[in-house]
Amino acid sequence: MSSIFPYIPSVGALMGYGIHTLAQSISQTPPGTAAGTRQDKPAGRTDIAAALNDQPAIKPDARFSSATITLNNGNGLDIDNAARLLIPSAPAGTATSLRGIEIINSATAKTVGERNGFTSTGLAPVWLENHGSITGKNGAGVRLDGDQDDEVVNAGLIIGSHGVALSMGGGNDMLIVRSGGRFEGVVDGGSGTNQVILDDARGGTFDGARQMQHLWVGSGNWTLTGEVPVNQQGAVYSGATLVNQSKIGGSMTIQPDATYAGGTVANLEVAGTLRLDPATHVEQDLRMQHGSTLALTLGADQTHTPSSIGNTADLRGATLAIHVENENDALLSQPLPLLSAKHVESPFAGITSNLKTLVPTLTYRPDGVFVTFKRNDPTA
């Protein structure tokens, strides 16, 4: 059975395209003139307007540093008011912004707009990093229209008052969620090919998103509480964990040393660990690669819900790892269903357990796999 999944980019490739590139641009920004100066004090709408009014006309070959604006105001910000700070297609160089507009909302900032918290009609691409709170009293927390390739990093709170917290508009957009990043309202990637990256060693919770074609879990232990319905291809990278409490469209790849559990997904290819509790529903195919692990934990009550596979379960490369918290004779009563499937291909490569007085054995049927516990007979 050949792989059903296309090439998965590395975390470095993903992050190199977005936030790491921008972070490098900001860190290399030297002090400059008024148009390119990095402001250390809060800037409001009037501050920006005054600065723009004082600027001379920008020459086509102009070179200047990127501008990072830290906001501490209650009026909201029309991002297009700052579009003149950076030319749309800046020449290459370490002192030149790689994005049109770069904004940081600091951890102590509470940015509030009477309609939207932040607004852009897409005159230039926007990179927004939020550590504080952004609120739209009568609209979205952040609304980025147009067809630009916008990027948003959220480590704070974005609140929308009419059901939408973040609207990213057209273009191929990127959303990076850090630990503590929350949204009150829907996250909408808009048109284009969009991606969301859950990336923080401290982990966190994400409530899902509309119109996100890629879901990547870069680091940390994350819980998905809402749907990512139009995901086409996603991945949980090595060292990361995703507990799915909802539904992911398309296919997910679980890399070596990564863990996935629960929820519903269309296709699942596992090179790391698939935890059977909570039960996972795979609508089409499950493929366990060589060296992967299917992990079953039986708690003190010994209850277990089998995982269901809509089409084929290919187990040929996996080890079944059983952990029993309360080893007793009740496990001898009847076979325990591990998973059900329309087709089961190949047996497990092996089985391990923490059992001392019992031995697990496997039974394969065309439509499922069962484990039976027997007494350990040292003389056998």
Q: Could you explain how this protein is built, in words?
A:
With 380 residues, this protein is mainly beta. The chain has a domain at 8-223. The protein has three helices and 31 strands. It has a 16-stranded mixed sheet that branches. An eight-stranded parallel sheet has the order 14-16-18-20-22-25-27-29, with no helix packed on it. The protein is elongated.
Could you tell me the number of beta strands?
Answer: 31
Number of helical stretches of at least 4 residues: 3
Mean pLDDT: 81
Cα Rg: 25 Å
Show unreliable segments: 17-74, 81-98
Shape: elongated
The major β-sheet equals: 16 strands, mixed
Structural class: mainly beta
Helix content bin: under 10%
N/C terminus separation: 38 Å
Report the portion of residues in β strands.
Answer: 35-45%
Describe this protein with a few key phrases.
mainly beta; 380 residues; 3 helices; 7% helix; eight-stranded parallel beta sheet
Summarize the structure.
The protein is mainly β and 380 residues long. It contains 3 helices and 31 strands. It has a 16-stranded mixed sheet that branches. An 8-stranded parallel sheet has the order 14-16-18-20-22-25-27-29, with no helix packed on it. Strands 2, 4, 5, 7, 8, 10 and 12 form a 7-stranded parallel sheet that branches.
